[in-house]
Amino acid sequence: MAELLIKSRENMKRTIVLFHGYGKNRDIFASVGRAFSRAITDADIHIPNAFQECAEGGYQWFPFIDENVESWKMAYYDVEPQLEEYVANIVQEKKQTYDDVTFVGFSQGAMISIMLGIKLQVKAAIAFAGQLLDPNISVNSNQPKIFMAHSKMDKVVPISEMYSAEKILQSKGLTVKTFISKATEHVVDIDMIKVSDDFLLEQNSH
């Protein structure tokens, strides 16, 4: 899988993996990675392209079939083994554990961040403008710590999806923090980045 790598500015202690949104690519999400690297100076940041090309251009982690969330869930589980293998290779190469890893995703990538983060029990998972694909997902740990940020007026993924995910994940024993941006579009804005930086720095202090 083709990826960009932003090397840590200090001795590398942890890894952040960024998952871009549907129809996007690693280059578009690189600005988010660079923003994180300015605050989180001890992390290598990996920004891969998704597995599949979209007919409209860009890449997708899994196909979106109509507005059928159940089909999205099944499509995610079909590619989950590939995602696990990708992250496992990074962890093994760096001689780390999943407790050294944080996932960050936007939109479809945010779905990956939450779902795969729970499966692998990584340190933290950040979801920008995302939603929980499987409300019945099995949670066997108090990790990851989850941060969700959403634009109040997002018309692509309604903010109600964040509230729903927060309620479900907290009921399963996970710690979930949320942030509402004043942005009016389906975006990652500077306020989301700043608050997620603080979240990551807090996790690193534990």
Task: Describe the fold and architecture.
By secondary structure, the chain is α/β, with parallel strands linked by helices. The chain has a single domain (3-204), classed as Rossmann fold. Helix content is 39%, strand content 21%. It has five helices and nine strands; from the N terminus they run E-E-H-E-E-E-H-E-H-E-E-H-E-H. The protein has helices spanning 26-39, 69-94, 108-120, 160-171, 190-204; strands at residues 3-6, 14-19, 43-48, 52-53, 59-60, 101-106, 124-128, 145-151, 176-181. It is globular. The protein starts with a strand and ends with a helix.
Trace the largest sheet across and list its strands: 1-3-2-6-7-8-9
Q: Report mean pLDDT, rounded to a whole number.
A: 93
Q: How large, in whole angstroms, is the Cα Rg?
A: 15 Å
Can you tell me the CATH architecture? 3-Layer(aba) Sandwich
**How much of the polypeptide forms β-strand, as a percent range?**
15-25%
Order of helices and strands: EEHEEEHEHEEHEH
Secondary-structure blueprint of this entry?
Elements: E1 3-6, E2 14-19, H1 26-39, E3 43-48, E4 52-53, E5 59-60, H2 69-94, E6 101-106, H3 108-120, E7 124-128, E8 145-151, H4 160-171, E9 176-181, H5 190-204
Parallel strand pairs: 2-3, 2-6, 6-7, 7-8, 8-9
Antiparallel strand pairs: 1-3, 4-5
